[in-house]
TrEMBL record:
Residues 14-50 form the MYND-type domain. SUPFAM superfamilies: HIT/MYND zinc finger-like (SSF144232), SET domain (SSF82199). Keywords: Metal-binding, Zinc, Zinc-finger. This is Protein msta-like. Residues 41-281 form the SET domain. It comes from Hirondellea gigas.
Amino acid sequence: MPSSNIMDEQQTTCIVCGSAANQRCSRCHVTSYCNREHQKSHWKQHKTDCRPYVVQENLILGKYLVASRDLAAGELLLKDVPIVLGLRQITMPVCVSCSASVNGSHCCSECGWPLCSPECQRVILHKPECQASKCRGSKVVISKFFQINEMYECITPLRCLWLKQNEPKKWDQLMTMESHLDARQKSKATELDKTNVIDFVRGYLKYQDFVDEDVYKVCGILEVNGFEIPAPNFVGLYANACRLEHSCVPNTSRSFDEQMNVVIRAAVPIKKGDHITISYTDQMWGTSSRQLHLNTTKYFTCECDRCLDPTELGTHYSSIVCQNCSALITPPKIRTDNWFCTSCNKTVPAEYVTKLLKTWGEILANLRGNIADSEDFLKSTETDFSENHHYRTDVKLALVQLIGKQNENQLAGLTDDQLKTKLHLGKEVLEVADCFSPGCTRLRGLLQFEIGMTLWEQHRRQPKTIRTSKAAAPMLKESEICLTEAHQVLSVEFSMQDEHQVAQQAAEVKLLVAKAITKCKGKKK
Ligand SMILES: C[S@@+](CC[C@H](N)C(=O)[O-])C[C@H]1O[C@@H](n2cnc3c(N)ncnc32)[C@H](O)[C@@H]1O
């Protein structure tokens, strides 16, 4: 998205007394003052909404965020408290308080919804559905475990509806969020809301104290604005973060802290006036999967640079190999059209490509972490797909993380060739990640960790004479850079995330690498 002129959003008069302002808050660059005293006296009030962005609005995007000053990579942009925390609507039975898996051995003594332990009964989060379910007169009975259970679809909508009477300020905030009601009606998404939420709540739970329109609205709000929190398996709605615009190459990264607040940081340097973006899809999906996801769940067509470029920024992430001349064929503009090789003018029927993708897609789905099968997959798909095709990149990424994890001695237990493969694949995937997930992002951090650790292991295997000579320095330096960046990016993740432990390991090994660099410095080649 192009930069915006944000000056319209910034006041030119002192926020305290209304006289002409000649200075701005240096943190947000938005709020203005006529003198230092007024700025100081206003700080207590201002600090809660002092943020380095402003909210703007246009006809295509609705509301979106724009940087109010230059931002450095890694800088904190926004930390937002959830208005609602709920369970994913499509889920197997889980504890309604903490989302841990359950087998039916505990349930809420008041309403019967499953819990993982008696302690979870007291968790306040569970109150809305607990109260609604009591109307039933008898306890909720869950009999199907370990498979998707539609009964759970009502939990998070009930938590939203509960705000209307119990926390009206939060309800008002919720009601300002986009719900795409018309588009959801056309796509028949509201029919599912009716069957799985409204009819279930009225018929089974016997709870009647709501209007159907509110259910359609909150189901839309959840679908369009909900943030999936990985651990625990929750979905959260956030008043400020919900305004972030989508891009398939976003300029921020997101994480969650222990309190389930969402934390948004600049992933790359962001210029004043630039739109601030996140990705609503998986950046490592190909264009047609990303577009399908955005169209069917967020109700818009993405027109970012990556989506408009059939080569996906030169990566050929969705290209296939022409069976006639071996050139790469990029996808047609319209998904259902035939593909066309511009090198030999051969037309490839759309059905052929659909079948090719389906066949290999099924094989990919069944690899299930098997290293030998994954390597075979890469060999066999060489003649059908581009080197970076998303199927191949998916498998390469899995292999980078798998190789060395399946034996007790980890990297030390690998052969030299296995180490070489891990390093080579890691570097290939990192190049793709640099295009789609640039800067301080979790994906790049994890890849740099794997690369840094592999280089360190390769160094350790060299004969002592080489290990301690100047010739060892370039490989050590590369390892040090990778581990330093991995540590920087991953250490902002919170302790409950696996990445936090990875960051600690990166920091420990980085010290060993630094020591080895000192040792080989000053030595003859
Ligand atoms: C989570 S909301 C973002 C905030 C929303 N614009 C608002 O006014 O509250 C997601 C919706 O914003 C719009 N949107 C976000 N990113 C967009 C993009 N890159 N292109 C077009 N529309 C976008 C779409 O309507 C999408 O369903």
